[in-house]
Write a structure and sequence with these properties.
- The protein is built from eleven helices and five strands.
- By secondary structure, it is an alpha+beta fold.
- The chain has a five-stranded mixed sheet with strand order 1-2-3-5-4.
- Helix 5 (about 125-135) runs antiparallel to helix 6, helix 6 packs antiparallel against helix 7 and helix 7 runs antiparallel to helix 8.
């Protein structure tokens, strides 16, 4: 068995995959992060303000016209930001308020374009973005073309050619935002659904545990109660019979304790299929391209061997997500025939960068000990680009042949 321990990813033992890093697609952890995300999504469209601002600072208008232009622009931007910031949160405006704000933006864009010139036609891009972002799909499908129609009508009075040039952009940007908005809504719904499924799974597991404990302990505890009552009644006159009842109580209670321990051990034992599914979720959430096999064939594989491989996979994926900085991770589970019999081999390879370290890490040491208890071996090595971990466990009964090399 060869184990290299100079990679810091495997020096911290089994760790939670959630750190200070912001996982893509995850919810904002605090208000500051939420506002930063909103600014990124909303602020990107502020580039279209360059034409109105340039028009105001160029000195082409009177002092009163310039002041009115700045005021109108400030009100327009305030309406735009208020609408999108609020509707990207958990407490959006009512439909009536949304319609009023979008209508006010459209009126302001029309008035400013007619009074100050064609440089202000770009404001209709914001109206289109607002329609695509906050309106339901059915309403957005007519509101965005309506915005383009108003743009053309205003362009007939200001600059028809510029309005025609902006028309395609207004339509494309509006419909693009409907797609983005729908994607965001779907993502939120999926996140809620996943949380609900997890809660339901936890509840089902609790019910299953309750049923199993009832089946395991119900009969035993009833028998213990009955024999205890019999022993109590026999104790004054028939102490020998009472002693036999007490011995029976001891035997039943010991068997019940063994049953409970076996049940708890089964609940604690990880399953390889479940760990593969969890690895897919963890790697995808961390932005790592995952290559994972289908559900492996575990026929004849001892439970201890499967559990050891499951622990190895959990440890490896945790460290890939937490420390590696990898772009890609590949997991393979294959059966191999060796001189010692059939083995099940787990291979986890990533293309992340590793650092230097000294001495064995707790992660690999713990995995090595766990695999050895199941009759398996662990191999880990640094690659030219990345890290590879290979764990092998018996895929059948361990033969009694000498010592393993």
């Amino acid at each position: 068995m060869s184990v290299m321990t100079d990679d810091p990813r495997y020096r911290d033992g089994l760790e939670d995959i959630q750190g200070n890093r912001i996982l893509p697609g995850g919810p904002a952890r605090n208000r500051r992060e939420l506002w930063r995300r909103k600014l990124v999504w909303i602020g990107v469209w502020l580039v279209f303000l360059s034409s109105p601002v340039h028009d105001l600072v160029s000195g082409q208008h009177t002092t009163a016209g310039t002041a009115a232009g700045w005021l109108g622009l400030a009100v327009f931007v305030a309406l735009y930001l208020a609408l999108l910031f609020r509707n990207m949160g958990d407490t959006p405006y009512s439909a009536k308020v949304v319609h009023s704000l979008i209508g006010s933006m459209a009126v302001l864009a029309t008035v400013l374009s007619l009074t100050l010139g064609s440089a202000w036609l770009g404001l209709y891009c914001y109206v289109s973005v607002a329609c695509g972002s906050v309106l339901p799909m059915r309403q957005a499908l007519w509101a965005i073309p309506g915005t383009g129609a108003v743009l053309l009508l205003v362009g007939l009075r200001t600059a028809e050619e510029e309005a025609l040039n902006l028309l395609l952009l207004v339509l494309l940007i509006g419909f693009a935002m409907t797609g983005v908005s729908q994607l965001v809504r779907t993502t939120i719904e999926l996140r809620k659904a996943r949380a609900t499924v997890a809660q339901l799974a936890a509840n089902e597991e609790r019910l299953r545990l309750a049923r199993d404990l009832h089946d395991l302990l119900g009969h035993s505890l009833s028998l213990i109660t009955l024999k205890s009552e019999l022993a109590g009644r026999m104790l004054p006159d028939h102490p020998d019979k009472a002693a036999r009842q007490v011995a029976d109580i001891e035997q039943v209670s010991r068997q019940a304790l063994v049953d409970v321990r076996e049940a708890v051990t089964g609940y604690r034992r990880p399953r390889l299929a479940a760990e593969l599914a969890g690895a897919q979720v963890a790697l995808t959430a961390a932005g790592v391209i995952a290559g994972l096999p289908a559900e492996p064939d575990l026929d004849g594989v001892p439970e201890d061997s499967e559990a050891a491989l499951a622990w190895a996979l959990r440890e490896a994926i945790t460290n890939v997500v937490r420390h590696s900085g990898a772009d890609r991770c590949t997991v393979d589970v294959v059966r191999r025939q060796t001189l010692d019999g059939p083995v099940l081999e787990l291979s986890v390879e990533d293309d992340g960068s590793g650092g230097s370290g000294k001495g064995p890490g707790n992660g690999l040491t713990g995995l090595t000990e766990r695999l050895e208890k199941a009759g398996g071996v662990l191999e880990a090595e640094r690659l030219k680009r990345g890290f590879r971990l290979v764990a092998r466990v018996p895929a059948g009964d361990v033969p009694d042949v000498g010592s393993r090399s």
